Amino acid sequence: MSDMSIVILTFVVVTLLGVPLYASVGITVVVALFLIDIPYTLLAQTGFTALQPFPLLTIPMFVLAGRLMETGGMATRIIAIANSLVGAYKGSLALVTVVACMFFAALCGSGPATTAAIGSVTIPSMLREGYSKRFAAAVSASAGALGSMIPPSNLLIIYCLVAEESIPRVFLAGFVPGIFVTILLLLMAYGICYLRGFGGGGEKFSLKPMLRAVWSGIWAILAPVIILGGIYGGIFTPTEAASVAVFYALFVGLFIYRELTLEKIISALRFTALMAGILIIITPSLAFGQLMAFYDTPELVSNALSAITDDPFWVMIIIGLILIAVGTFMESLAQVVLFTPMFLPGLKEMGIDPVVFGVFMVMSCEIGFLTPPLGGNLNVAARLTGITIEDVSVGVLPLIIPYVIVMYLMIVWPEAILFLPDLVYGARPT
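^ that's the sequence the OP posted. Answer follows.
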């Protein structure tokens, strides 16, 4: 048996035994280092360099900002604005959930966090209006996945660091597919609600309540304008924008809405520390990626795909299926770190823009948020509704269709993704 086969077998066996993913990758790296007689200090050196990049601070800062905005009153005001816009029509609360998740995604950067922030408010309301638990959980989970696509996105940040891409450019590329998915989710949710008779109570849409809700939530609306406008206006970097977001959330929560307390701030810091703990996967994953390069894995993967087909369309389809399948049991962050160096070199040779692949990869990871047994969003939604993750996964199936459609559109129409980055920063030479 070759060294490469032993390495792959080790990873598969250890993962199937239920060992945490960061430990599984770390054990696999240690085995590989032993087989090729490389000092184990490589793992420590990689860990130091992996966690050194300044932009990594962006992730915990955006997580903290999102948590402070949730507990400080911004999330409830975003939901109020969405509710006033939608009105009392069939499936109104489901539509409110989707719209509110889209707005909150521009503040948070995390799919599970978006699901928790919006779902904790809208799910009880949906249940009171007669929505089924399965559907209420499913629509919250599926819309919450927008938190990983609409900027600022933690997964897009990690992709940019691994692929050495411009964060603002990739952020801009995430807007169009994010909006497309939102529109399709609204249509799908409305169709399900219409067929099953969910919603329709409450007051009809009128201008005055909508204006009142917007005025009450003006500070929440200004948050993405300040954060994203500052990035694209060249006022501050994405990392600085994350710091601005934290201070803005503290200011609004403490002095404007006055809903933040010392207890809530400490709870937000504790939540951020737990969420940021997933960054530990970066160290063994990058070391694993270096070993894969040593074994010429990117070239082997490229040759294997070329042996199947030379058509970039089918290559992207195959990669998408692989990422979705792996996403059922692997953390999305680990997927991005492990598979970007494997797939990206070959895709560049085929003429596929790294920005397009980054957005495509994160969209695949979003579907992973919605598939068991891992399914981060499913777990959050299941806890909020008190049903099993299996029950939620059945309800979410039709709501995965919008993501699949947009993935297909990204393959056949990459210009739609590149339109905004090219408009703002200029088209790259081909």
